[in-house]
Amino acid sequence: MKKNTHGDDEINMHEEMRRAFALLSGKWKLEIMWLLNQRMYRFGELRKAIPGITQHMLTAQLRELEADGLVSRTVFAEVPPRVEYQITQKARGLGPTMEALTAWWNEYGKTVPVKPASRGRKARVVKSKPK
């Protein structure tokens, strides 16, 4: 990738893009961000919405996203404690990227082979009780 120069400061766009990719790299971060782009979630809701993710991994990924300024965490002083996660204004800037990925998937997703389920926590099927 070419280097862009602005006066005395030289910007290596390859390095800058590597930094950008690192913010969302990992098995779960994009999925977490996609969900939070839709609405605010509580921790348990996120865990249920992402089949295969463990509690430990979700906690770690959310902490990294929060440290990078992409996710905000709000703790409510209630018993039991309530914690809500939402994307930040900075992360909202990724909205067009999410929309472009959705449009791409709608066009080409059916051509992508389905992969077998991966390791991790299996999705639970919750059966509702008859009323």
TrEMBL record:
Annotated HTH hxlR-type domain residues: 15-113
Family matches, as PROSITE patterns: HTH_HXLR
Record keywords: DNA-binding, Transcription, Transcription regulation
InterPro entries: HTH_HxlR, WH-like_DNA-bd_sf, WH_DNA-bd_sf
Record-linked SUPFAM superfamilies: Winged helix' DNA-binding domain
Name of the protein in question: HTH hxlR-type domain-containing protein
